[in-house]
Here is the input.
Amino acid sequence: MASEALAFHLEGMREDGEEIPAPSTLDDLRGDPAMKGAVAFLVETKEPEKTVRVNITARASQIAEIDRRARSVGLTRSSYLVQKALGRRAVSR
Here is the structure.
């Protein structure tokens, strides 16, 4: 939950054009008077990946079947294809 909260905060900072500060070390926090009495812990977050658009070629009937299967599990065509291509069970999140 902490990593999701941090990722959400960082996303908001990026949208607002704010500079993302370098991560603090535990030693930095230990020496900060504003942190007196606080409990510090490490939270890891990953930089968001860029989404890339790709085109595929398939028969109309194949696309229709892919769309039907994607809808049946509550996914978009793209999400369904990616999950299947990566060998994952196509399940809506």
User: Anything to note?
Assistant: The chain is about 45% helix and 0% strand. Helices lie at 2-15, 26-30, 60-72, 77-85. The two ends are 16 Å apart (CA to CA). The chain has a mean pLDDT of 89.
